[in-house]
Amino acid sequence: MVFQDTPNVFPPGRRPLPQDFLDRNKRERIALAVARIVREFGVSGLTVDLVIRDAKMARATFYDQFPNGGRAIEYANDLGNRKLIEAVNAAADTPGGWERRVEGMIDRLIEAVLSEPELSELCLVHGRGSGKCGGPVHPDLMQALAAILRPGRRERPKPPPAPRTEELIAYGIVAVISDHLRRGDLDELRGLGRDLTQLATLPFLGREAAFAAPARH
Fold it and tell me: pLDDT tens for residues 114-155?
């Protein structure tokens, strides 16, 4: 089947949308199609034919945005990571103390994952095989998570947690979420906020303090 994009027709007096907005919309359609295909067939199973069929767009439209499927995967991977990083960074404004910010970070991260699970699965589960990402998780996402966790050192009486504790906790949080994405356990993922918050604060507060807070989810 050959898809043809519908021409942009505007009523008299209406100005067309900016081209960069239209191009961004097309790239995001392609990215979501890439994520769905990778979820079903894996990175190695992705083809341009599958992408344009899923995105319901003309082949020429795809090639206007990306030179090949590999670059489309890279863009989709970066887009997914950007959305997760934005969700984590937004938790820095969570009112209350450090524990509330950690809780907000985990809640926002889970909400972002659940809002677009295929895109999240692409960057968290398949990230190593999707272009420029040299590791299983984007380093900027790890840094964003660690930045929220790091002030917890002020909450902990001496001696402080071991060096790189924040990075290890960040990997642990992402590993748990990735495992649920891999298995398709989205309903269970919705209820993990409190457990992950307790585990994230445990090395800083100690077991008694970390597990003392009542459930708020």
Answer: 999 999 999 999 875 444 444 568 899 999 999 999 999 887
- In angstroms, the Cα distances linking 147 to 98, 105, 112, 165, 201 are 11, 11, 18, 12, 14
Structural domain span for residue 35: 19-210
pLDDT > 90: what percent of the chain?
Answer: 66
In a domain, 155, yes or no: yes
Q: Is 132 exposed, middle or buried (0-12, 13-18, 19+ CB in 10 A)?
A: exposed
Q: Which of 161, 158, 157 is nearest to 149 (CA)?
A: 161
Residue 166 CB partners (closer than 8 Å, separation 6+): 145, 146, 149, 150, 152
Rounded distance between C-alpha atoms, residue 152 and residue 160, angstroms? 9
The CATH code of the domain that includes 68 is 1.10.357.10
Sequence-distant (6+) residues with CB within 8 A of 120 are: 80, 83, 84, 112, 113, 177, 181
Closest CA to 120 of 76, 86, 88: 76
In a domain, 132, yes or no: yes
Total domains in the fold of the chain? 1
- Asked, for residue 201, whether it belongs to a domain, the answer is yes
